[in-house]
Structure formats: C-alpha cells, structure tokens
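[Automated response] Your request has been received and processed.

Submitted sequence:
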Amino acid sequence: MFNARTLFDKRSNDNREDVMRYSKYIFNGHFILFLSIAVGALVLQYGELLRHLPKGINYHLIIALVLSLGIVTPLRTYFKEADQVFLLAYEKQLNSYVNKAIIAAFVRRLIGWTILFAVFIPLYRAASSDDSYGLGGAYVFGVMMILIGLFVRWFAMKLDISHSAVNILLFLMAMAGIYNLLQGVYFTSVGEVAFSVGLAYLLNHISRNYVFNWDKIIDYERGLTQRQYKTINMFTDVKGLKDNVRRRRFLDGLLVLASQNFNQQGMFLYLFKRNFARSKDAFWIIIRLVVIGGVIIWLVRQPVIAAIIGVFVVYIIVLQSSQFYKQQAYQLWPQVWPVKETLVIDGFRKFLWQLSLVVTVLMAVIYIVFYSAHFYYVIAFFAVMWWTNQQVMNKLQKKMTLLKD
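Generated structure:
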C-alpha cells in the first residue's frame, strides 16, 4: 500500500546519509582547524566593530536586508524524474508528502535563520536603544514569513509561476516587515502578515483543482540537488555531478597560446586548459574560493590569521584541481590515441603547476594589499602550493600504478 509520508522519510534520509558521507571528507582535521581560526578571528573583529561602531549608517536596514535574504527558503521535495510516471496515479495522496517536505524545509531554515538572527542581536543593541519588542517582533515575523513563504512557493509551482517572481515578492515583504519592526513601527508588519496569509490562501484556492506541474517541480528539485553537490564539490569530489560546458570568449587567448604546442607532448596540457576554460561549474568553484578567501582575509584584520586563511585557500584549491585529471585520464580517448599514457600525467602536472601558481599569486597579491607590512608571510603560500602539488601528483601516480596492476 502506498504511503506518502514513508516515501518522503526514506528519500529525506537517503539525502541526509549522502550529505553525511561527504561531510566526513570535508570536516577533517585541517578544515576544522581552519574553521576554528576563521570563526575566532571573525568574532574578535566583530567585537572590535561593536566597540567602535561607525556613526551615520542605517544598521537596521543592513540587518533587515541580510535577514530577509535568509527568509527566502528553497523547498526540497526530493521528487525524481520517474515520479511523473509512477506517482501519477497517487497524486491526490501526495498532499501529506508535500506537507512533510514543507515542514522539513521550515525546520532546517529556522535553525540557520535563528543563528543568523542571534548574530545580529549585538549589532542591533549597539546601534540603537534597547527595544526588545521590536527585536522580538522581528523574529516572530521572520519565522512566520519562512513558513508562509514555503506554502506560497508550492502553490506557485503548481500554477507555473516563476521562482524569481516568488523570491522577489517574499524578499520585499520580509524586508519591509523586519525593517519596520526594528524601527518600532508595528502596525504595518501586522498588515504584511495578513497580506501574506491572504496570498497563500488565494493561491491555494486557485491551485486546488490543478494537477502537479511535474516538469517544473522536477526541474526545480534537480537544480537544488545540483546546487547542493556543487557546494560540496568546493571541498571534495562528488560522484555523478554534472558539469556543464560554456564558452568564455575572454579566455580564448589562453587556448590560442596553448594550441601552438599541440603535439604529443603538449596535447594534454591543451586539453586540460580547454576543460578548465570551458567548464561551467569547476571554473566558478575555484573563482568562488578565491573570492571567499580574499573577503575573509580582508575581514579578519589579523596578519597571522589572514596568512593562515590564505594558506588554507591555496591548499584547498590545489586539491580540488585534481578533478580535472579525471576528465581526461578516465576517458576512452587516452586509450585509443597513439601516445604514451605517461603523457596524461605529464600534461596534468604542467597544468596543475600553472593553475596553482596563478591562484597563489592572486592570494599573495590580495594579502599584500591589506597587510603590506607583513608581505613576507606570502612565502608560506608558495611553500604550501609546492608541497600540495607534490602530494597530489604522487597520489595520482600511485593510483595509476594500482589500476595498471
């Protein structure tokens, strides 16, 4: 007998186990040490900011902006492509499935949003008079908007309303309500809650006789799954992650230079560079890591801690670059082309050195810009880059040897 609640529990547990399996590789000793240092440094810097808070800035608006972004919540339904065939006959019984999905998404977001809200409490108290009613009202309003927003999102999916339109609407309503509450204006927030409830009721009434828009629902879930794996892939390899391809004309010059040496010795170096330049996901993962590392280096305002963070970013990026090797070495063509298999490793070694050198120089420049008096710390960046390159190449060579045996 079909049980929608049991089906959701099983799929939710499968996804949780999948994330936990990758978490074991992410939260190793190195990463936990980095997080401890980074969080400690940011807490110290945050405390320093509160003691010397600049005047003339609308902190209520900043708090409302960030909290409102956190209120816009994705809805994980875990629906799969085959469901539009096999669950079609049970569509009327899936309301309990969707309700469980909404409650699960609400609980997950509530935990994270509560932590984010707690982070801004000291800033709110330092920037204004202690208005506990406004602060408490903002929290209650935010919790209500998260739950209402999830129902609105589901009804909108059934009606084929754009997710962007839903995101913008929820963000604007949440920001207006939180900002007014922080400012001590309570009446308008009550009206916004009433409007949100009325909107959810109206959408529910309209969509009551609509069947599931399976294509839109499944595409949305597929996008959320890919986003989850892309986030994990910033720190460790993810099996089955689809990497899209996109041409970037501003990198064509790099490929033209590489193609000048397109022979047996240089062919794989060219192919690795081409994969990197055309890869939609892997390319931006490295860019994001550099940007995140640069922002943290700027925020901590502590030369030694900033240097440790820079070293860790270089270490992570070099490790993540090993995924490009799999894109060529484990394909059929290296077995067919009349070239030695060792040329694959030689080409990747050159590519890895060039890529890691560019990344390390970027991190070193960022560090020197903010901590010019301690420029000599960037020597550690290059030392870690060299050591990590050696470790990655030794590991790949051992793996290839074992595969041959």
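Summary generated for your ticket: The chain has 17 helices and no strands. The chain has a mean pLDDT of 82.
If you did not submit this request, please reply to this message.
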